[in-house]
Automatic annotation (TrEMBL):
Polar residues bias: start-end ranges: 24-34
Annotated region described as Disordered, given as residue ranges: 1-51
Matching InterPro entries: AlkB-like_sf (IPR037151)
Name of the protein this chain belongs to: Uncharacterized protein
Needed cofactors: Fe(2+)
Comp. bias regions, Basic residues: 1-10
Length: 102
C-alpha cells in the first residue's frame, strides 16, 4: 500500500498538521452526528440478519483481474519510484495522492 510506504516520509509533516488540528476547538461531537444520521432499514437488524445480508452482498461481488502479473510488477516499480522521489523531497507537500493504488 502506497500509504504505508509514504508514512515515514510524511510523518513529520503529518505531525505538524495534527498539532494544528488538535489545537482547534471541535464544533460538533459524535453523539450529535449520530442523532442527525438518517435511519436505515438495516439499523433494526440483529447480528444474524446483518450477517445474512452481508453474505448476499458478498455473493454478488465478482472480482476480475485487470492486469497480468508482469503489468502489476511494472505498476509496483512505478509506485516505488514515486515513493523514492517523495522521500527525497522532490515533490511539493500534498502532491502525491496518498490513496491506495492497489
Amino acid at each position: 500500500d502506497l500509504r504505508v510506504k509514504l508514512h515515514n516520509s510524511t510523518h513529520s509533516r503529518n505531525t505538524e498538521y495534527e498539532k494544528k488540528q488538535n489545537s482547534k476547538p471541535k464544533s460538533s461531537n459524535v453523539n450529535a452526528q449520530k442523532r442527525n444520521a438518517p435511519r436505515s432499514k438495516y439499523d433494526d437488524y440483529n447480528t444474524e440478519e446483518r450477517e445474512e445480508e452481508l453474505q448476499k452482498v458478498m455473493s454478488g461481488i465478482k472480482q476480475l483481474p485487470l492486469f497480468t502479473k508482469e503489468q502489476c510488477q511494472g505498476i509496483e516499480k512505478k509506485i516505488d519510484k514515486v515513493v523514492k522521489l517523495s522521500e527525497l523531497g522532490l515533490y511539493k507537500e500534498h502532491t502525491v495522492d496518498r490513496a491506495p493504488l492497489r
